[in-house]
Amino acid sequence: MRVAIFSTKSYDRRFLESANKGHAHDLVFFEACLTAETSGLAAGFPAVCAFVNDRLTAEVLENLAKSGTRLIAMRCAGFNNVDLSAARELALTVVRVPDYSPHAVAEHTVALILALNRRIHRAYNRVREGNFALDGLAGFDLYGRTAGIIGTGKIGAAVARILKGFGCNLVAYDPVPNPDCVSLAVKYVSLEELFSQSDIISLHCPLTPQTQHLIDSRSLARMRPGVMLINTSRGGLIDTRAVIGALKSSKIAYLGLDVYEEEADLFFEDLSDRVIKDDVFSRLLTFPNVIITGHQGFFTQNALKNIAETTLSNITDFEQGRTCANEVTTDVLRR
Ligand code: NAD
Fold first, then answer.
1. By CB atoms within 10 Å of each CB, which of 50, 89, 94, 174 scores lowest?
2. Active centre residues (catalytic)
3. How far is the CA of 296 from the centre of ligand 1 (A)?
4. Could you report the per-residue pLDDT of 146-160, keeping only the tens digit for each?
5. 101 close to ligand 1 (CB < 6 Angstrom)
């Protein structure tokens, strides 16, 4: 099948070309992000492969459908940038990669927790400058602390397993409790209880209209002073301006982000020669107790291999008329 692949980086190309040996699709790589302006590149391609920050709005989907596209193959788990209702209207099939390595994102989450707690980012710079003073680097034992996990699907459950190993008490909120977490002695509580009991709060739920700005000034007011907040899920879960207020008042003592509300204009590109025009993001960078990574939670060799293999298998399933287990339907909007 001819596939137009958007937002391509060298690593996407490498892993997709290698996985394609078992499929023989006709892969055409575009560096451009998929937007209304670039959608014309996919004219005549029955399949379009897109990534997390590609914008599959109703307008883009309409352009694609008009020029012959029938399949949208997301090479990521999240599908919050796909207008699923429009896709259904246009009879476009949407598939994704729901499960490529929950461990990759979970381990990155814990990397942020450890780096923030033990101030590894500051220690690294100090030691390189010959400054071996310890003032300001004191951390806390994770052992015995309460970690609150919001969303205990594949990634949240993997985080729970790791933090259990550190001896943390685990509380969680999820409308659908996960039996694996229950057997780890994770205690399911209300969101209110999670906010008031947790020393560390880690977000692992999808971005939906219900979870947009789940962390705002109201929820921040319910949290413990000095809380650590980690978001490796989707930027829109957090009202960034409210979080900046909570950093200024020291309500939040540690913030770890792998995702950001307006990341589409920043992440995955080398902007080191340019002026960052996003003042909210720039303010976040000024805090010594904030670590931001550019959406790299998924970025392990294992995950890239699995993403490429599943994406191409999804396309093959569609091409051969098989039901694809990884199809995303509008049913998810009703949950
Ligand atoms: P998953 O579908 O296995 O789990 C999501 C869980 O969230 C489910 O258990 C669901 O019941 C729960 N949930 C739904 N609505 C909720 C709500 N209102 N409050 C609390 N929980 C709710 O998904 P996953 O594979 O664990 O991925 C979780 C999220 O991680 C994805 O939605 C994606 O946004 C993000 N992600 C980030 C990266 C990265 O590189 N940083 C990579 C992959 C996924």
1. 89
2. 234, 263, 295
3. 16
4. 999 999 999 999 999
5. no
Q: What is the pLDDT of residues 281-332, one digit of tens each?
A: 999 999 999 999 999 999 999 999 999 999 999 999 999 999 999 999 877 6
> Rounded to an integer, what distance in angstroms lies between the CA atom of residue 161 and that of residue 114?
15
CA angle 40, 42, 43 (to 5 degrees): 70
Q: Which two tokens stand for residue 276?
A: 């960052």
CA atoms within 13 A on the CB side of 11: 13
152 lines ligand 1 (CB under 6 A): yes
Does the C-beta of 156 come closer than 6 Å to ligand 1? Answer: yes
Alpha-carbon torsion (12, 14, 19, 23), positive or negative: positive
Q: Find tokens 């191409």 and name the residue.
A: 312
DSSP string of 190-215, one letter each residue? -HHHHHHH-SEEEE-SPP-TTTTTSB
Q: Which residue puts its alpha carbon closest to atom 9 of ligand 1?
A: 153
